[in-house]
Amino acid sequence: MNASKISKRWLLNSLGMILAILITLIVILSLTVRSYTYNGIQTAIDSRSEELTNVFANYGRRSPAEFNKAARQYVENFPNKESMELMVFNNRGKVMNTSLGFAPDEKEVMPDYEAALQSKNGYGTWTGKLSSGERVMAVTRVLRSDTGNLVGGIRYVVSLSAADWQILLLVLMMVAVGLVVVALVLLSSRYFMRSILLPIQEIGSTAKRIAQGDFNARIENIRQDDEIGELCETINDMAKELDTAERMKNDFISSVSHELRTPLTAIKGWGETLQGGGLSPESFNKGMDVIIRETERLSSMVEELLDFSRMQSGRMTLTMDRIDILAELGEAVYMFSERAKNEGKFLLYAEPAMLSPVLGDVNRLRQVFVNILDNALKYTDRGGTINVAANEAEGFIQVTIGDDGCGIPEKHLPNVKKKFYKANQTVRGSGIGLALADEIMTLHSGSLDIESQEGVGTVVTITIPTIQKLRDHLEEEHEKKQLEERKANDDSAT
């Protein structure tokens, strides 16, 4: 896990976006402040220049001479000489007086004066730099006589240096605030990234250990009560499940190896004995019976393993047909009757008069009955009883196979239908019989339920729908689908 890559992505995405927002805000605020400040200065100049209408209402507008005299008095009595510079133009456009006491550079451009001459209301404004480099804002108003002749003009000039300096200070303050925000974001993101990266790094190292086969690996010190914490808990649960599955697989391999070794040993032993010759017919027949019986046992185990492989890969197929489940159950009970008698156990079957036919695979259903009956006999002591019963209710056939054997401990009961799981390691078996039976019943739209109490016994209930129940269900589904289609058509029409 390369933490620097995540950090770079965080910086490029989140921090980059924050910087872009801050820069945009600073630029917008700076332009807004500059515009507001300049507009204020412009308003102040305009308010001063508008008083010329009253000052020169009559006196000073009749002739250039009168204007010059009145303008000189206006400049001398102007109250804002410290903040504004006044220039007085004669009717020829030449500066004849200023509030500073000296004439400006004749080469200085004055676009506001030119604009005032061209304007109908005699007003012109300009913001720019002087030849000295100083930024100024200037407003010029020209006055004309009643006959329309130019008698002169007055120009107001305000330096923008102080305003620009204040704007610059404000921008610098905003930049400083932005830098503080960025620093706080960096500090908080560093803590945040550490709170994410450290668990992710631990998750990565633990996952690598699990991938290498160390199923005892766990993520320690889970502190976050959030998605990261939930992920850590999930990883730990996964490791625990993998550890359990690994142990079950090893137990399965050990169990199957033992199950295979026992009949192979018997076959090999009797094969060598028969090969030596000199046996009586009775001993020969006994040896052949053992070989045949153990061979059938091996064949059954191999077939069960193949079925399990098909189930795991999803390749288990059923040959569905109309069958009499009562006949198949009776045949399975008959198969185990002799074994129960030889083992000193009682196999009781309360056979009903009639059951409705079902749709199923006759061989697979018989396999389910055989697995359950075999387990019942294996876990029942000598003198115990196995009860088999069947009944029909509400379109379902239920077959119950109960025993008064050792029972299943409560802690093992939720797992007995899982693959490889064996609640009792002392009894022979591969641990896949119940998982296989449960899968077969699921493929038949049925179920396999187990109830057990340790020291009391176990009851297995096999449920499968009748053919009529399946037909009714299919008809209901078909009618429901047609109703939904009609409703969808009606909705589209409206």
TrEMBL record:
It catalyses: ATP + protein L-histidine = ADP + protein N-phospho-L-histidine. The chain crosses the membrane at residues 12-33, 165-187. Residues 194-247 form the HAMP domain. It is a multi-pass membrane protein. The keyword Kinase applies. SMART domains: HAMP, HATPase_c, HisKA. It is an enzyme of class 2 (transferase). Keywords: ATP-binding, Cell membrane, Kinase, Membrane, Nucleotide-binding, Phosphoprotein, Transferase, Transmembrane, Transmembrane helix, Two-component regulatory system. Its main location: membrane. InterPro entries: HAMP_dom, HATPase_C_sf, HATPase_dom, His_kinase_dom, HisK_dim/P_dom, HisK_dim/P_sf, HssS/ArlS-like, Sig_transdc_His_kin-like_C. Residues 255-468 form the Histidine kinase domain. The keyword Lipid metabolism does not apply. It is found in: Cell membrane. One of its GO terms (molecular function) is ATP binding. GO terms for cellular component: plasma membrane. Its EC number is 2.7.13.3. It holds the Pfam family HisKA. This is histidine kinase.
